[in-house]
Amino acid sequence: MPSTSVHLPQDLVATLDALAARRRVSRNRLILEACERLVHQDAGEWPEGFFANDDLPAADLRELRAAGRALEAAARRLRRNRRRSPFT
């Protein structure tokens, strides 16, 4: 497994050590689990500019907008439990 060095303030290290002791895990395991949790939480984030369509040709942009309208119409048609639009 690769390793890396991280510089942490002494008070944070002390807090991590106390937490690791309470959980009966090593400091390394505690930090690894925190990093894994952070990566997992960020998994649903879209990269900045992902939905930008500035570089799409006009025909593709029209097709994309039409598909979006068709999807919205289908969602409205199939909604049974609410009268209000889910997109407003």
Structural summary, described in words:
The structure is a single chain. Helix content is 58%, strand content 0%. It is an all-alpha fold. It has a domain at 10-42. The chain has helices at residues 10-23, 27-42, 58-78. 0% of the residues are buried.
Helices, strands, pairings?
Blueprint: H1 10-23, H2 27-42, H3 58-78
Helix pairs in contact: 1-2
Quick overview of this protein structure:
The protein has 88 residues and is mostly helical. The protein is 58% helix and 0% strand.
Q: Choose one word for the global shape.
A: elongated
- The share of residues in extended strands comes to under 5%
Number of strands: 0
Helix/strand/pairing class, anyone? mainly alpha
Summarize the amount of helix as a percent range: 55-70%
Element-by-element helix/strand order: HHH
Low-confidence stretches: none
Gyration radius (Cα, Å) is 24 Å
Number of helices: 3
First-to-last CA distance: 49 Å
Mean pLDDT: 87
Largest sheet: none
